[in-house]
From TrEMBL:
SUPFAM superfamilies: Hedgehog/DD-peptidase. The keyword Hydrolase applies. Keywords: Carboxypeptidase, Hydrolase, Protease. PANTHER family: D-ALANYL-D-ALANINE CARBOXYPEPTIDASE, PEPTIDOGLYCAN L-ALANYL-D-GLUTAMATE ENDOPEPTIDASE CWLK. This is D-alanyl-D-alanine carboxypeptidase-like protein. Gene3D superfamilies: 3.30.1380.10. CDD domains: Peptidase_M15_like. It comes from Actinocrispum wychmicini. Residues 40-141 form the D-alanyl-D-alanine carboxypeptidase-like core domain. GO terms for biological process: proteolysis.
Length: 167
């Protein structure tokens, strides 16, 4: 059954609020500066991402942002949803970091799609310092400038194995 007009209006208002906090209801191009999830990324990460996206476009591949910068409030909401979905904080930690530890909250992480963009980054990302960090999250990339010379570091199985999450 379709949503009623009032329900649609509440969802639209809620979506707009969460979008301001970094939600990306629909994937957006890496060049969209109107979307806070993109505009609030670390400038060096955004620059590397845009250079890679430009080169990938020459190969017929488009990068879309599924997630980027997030406010602490939005990250907390995602964490609560993950606890509900996975049944415990321990299991949720394999997928979602706390706001004080999340690289998304600091603007240092971006989630990329679709799968051909992730495949392109898997092959070429180190040339730009863009590295997949978690084996269970093939969409999650962070900037590691040393990767340009040394290649990307080994991946963690999931965020719960990342020492940054335990500090």
């Amino acid at each position: 059954m379709p949503y009623s007009e009032p329900a649609r209006a509440r969802w639209a208002a809620s979506s707009a609020v969460w979008r301001d906090h970094g939600a990306v209801p629909d994937p957006v191009p890496v060049f969209d500066d109107e979307i806070p999830a993109v505009a609030n990324l670390d400038p060096d990460l955004l620059d590397a991402l845009r250079r890679a996206a430009t080169d990938a476009a020459d190969d017929g591949v488009e990068f879309l942002v599924n997630g980027g910068w997030r406010s602490p409030e939005y990250q907390e909401q995602l964490l609560h949803e993950a606890v509900s979905k996975h049944g415990s904080a321990k299991e949720a930690a394999r997928w979602v970091a706390t706001p004080d530890k999340s690289a998304h909250v600091s603007g240092d992480a971006v989630d990329i799609g679709p799968s051909d963009a992730r495949a392109w980054l898997s092959k070429h990302g180190a040339e730009y310092g863009l590295c997949q960090i978690y084996r269970n999250e093939p969409w999650h990339y962070e900037l590691r400038p040393e990767a340009i010379e040394d290649g990307c570091p080994p991946m963690y199985a999931d965020p719960s194995h990342d020492p940054r999450m335990r500090q």
